[in-house]
Design brief:
Distance between the termini: 97 Å
Order of helices and strands: HHHH
Number of strands: 0
Organism: Aureispira anguillae
Helix content: 40-55%
Structural class: mainly alpha
Protein name: Lipoprotein
Radius of gyration: 33 Å
Length: 142
């Protein structure tokens, strides 16, 4: 059975459109409110934790003896002395201590520890600290 909707004579098409539009607006407002509430609740609940972030502890350079041979060469070999980067065929080889001059050593320190734009893939904090201490202690070979 099909029911017929009867309108009062005072209703017009524009009144009907207004009613439908306001209903749509109410539904949109309700939907927006529900989404905003769910998003906020998810954000706040996921950020609740009783664990504090681990403190950043820098290496105390006065207590360690970082040298090129003992520490830095391994870091540079793994992160920098790669084909197309700073290998023996490149413009600025980091392969041996004798291939490094003071300007290159200072450039390594500047790019890795200060600007932090090298290597492009980044480097672990401990390794950056080792290079920083190597520089602060005078770029020792052994």
């Amino acid at each position: 059975m099909v029911s017929k909707i009867k309108f009062k004579e005072s209703y017009s098409i524009s009144n009907l459109i207004d009613v439908l539009s306001s209903t749509s607006f109410i539904m949109k407002s309700y939907l927006f409110t529900c989404i905003a509430l769910a998003t906020s609740l998810t954000y706040f609940l996921s950020s609740c934790t009783d664990k504090l972030p681990e403190p950043v502890v820098s290496l105390d350079c006065s207590t360690v003896n970082i040298t090129y041979v003992g520490h830095v060469k391994g870091i540079l070999d793994a992160k920098c002395n790669l084909a197309g980067c700073h290998d023996d065929n490149g413009l600025a080889s980091f392969g041996t201590y004798s291939s490094l001059n003071t300007a290159r050593m200072e450039a390594i320190y500047d790019r890795v520890c200060v600007k932090k734009d090298m290597p492009p893939a980044g480097m672990a904090t401990e390794k950056v600290d080792s290079i920083r201490c190597w520089a602060e202690n005078g770029y020792l070979e052994n």
